[in-house]
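User: I'm new to structure prediction. If I give you an amino acid sequence, what do you actually give back? Let's try with this one:
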Amino acid sequence: MKMITTTDALAQFCADAKSHDTLFIDTEFMREKTFFSILCLIQVATPDDEAIVDPLAEDIDLAPLTNILMDKSITKVLHAARQDMEIFYQICGDVPSPIFDTQIAAMAAGFGDNAGYGALVKGRLGINLDKGARFTDWARRPLTEKQLSYALADVTHLRDLYPDMISELKENDRLEWVLEEMKPQMDESLYNFEPEQAWQRLKLRNPRKHYLAALKAAAAWRERQAIAKDIPRRRVLKDDALYDLAQQKPRDLKALAKLRGIPNGFEKSRSAQALVDAITAAVDNADDYAPPVPKVQHMPPSLGARIEMLRSLLRLRTEVQGIAPRLVINAKDLEKLAAFGEDSGVMALTGWRRDIFGQDALDMLAGKIGLRLDGNDVVAERLD
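Assistant: Good question. You get back a string of structure tokens that encode the predicted 3D arrangement of the chain. For your 384 residues, that looks like this:
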């Protein structure tokens, strides 16, 4: 097993990797007690080689690998790429591209929503993964051969999965579906911890401008504290505390101490006054500081039956195609479609999604398609 602990060895591996158009990659990291993930291992494979990179090795420079991550002529193949992409964004300063996420591809290959790596390897390769090292402390050194073998399998099996998945997607004219579904993962805002944008991770429970200004300021303050101390956000303040701050908008430490979501004694901390000052300034300048008031679509009453009918139709149509329903439409968009039909603006009414489900969904809402039982089976049939 090749363990890379020096910059020279990494540069040599990456020089060889550049002769291929794919790189199979995974990471092992720890994040339970920190804001930023502690990158502990990087597993990499090419069509004819594989290795484990130790980013914790003394003085190793990851630049040869980051150059490949940013090389647009090389497809980076991952499974459930979101967390890995966040780590790569932090070390590269940009979003690696292009990528191919086998979890998304699995949705177009009959493996349902959010297929786990183990289920995909078992279903496609007939291999049961050894999960004995799953809860390893990857930051500890030395790691055992069993632990390293477990980690490396995440990319060697990925390498075995990829060719047949690509061939199958092309054969069934579904590759473009999958590539389209991967595009949102290239959005930099998913991985950029800009404090002034931290409010976007929260549910906006009140559309009023002063509430939104206070919530934005509190979320930005918490983000800066968490980043500076490198601790999880919840260790600074929990989300419920931010909602209380936005609702009550305390203007002094005494008012702050009375809030239910604020820990006992927090008002005596060094940073408490800065939090109060940030909220006060935000509220006083709400016209300029508050984020845009979200547009609220008021759902009509008694949507339950319509949603269930569309959900049944979706299941029927996707079962025939052998794809995961979420690849066509998610639960939130299904509700919008039930409520507003053609005016819902959901992606399911465009392109291949409309061909598979969207148009039939509109026809069902218009009373042109109905459901009936045929023995134990549910059947959709046209009524016109």
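You can read the tokens as a compact description of the fold. Here is one thing that stands out. Strands lie at 3-4, 22-30, 38-46, 49-53, 75-78, 99-101, 369-374, 377-382.
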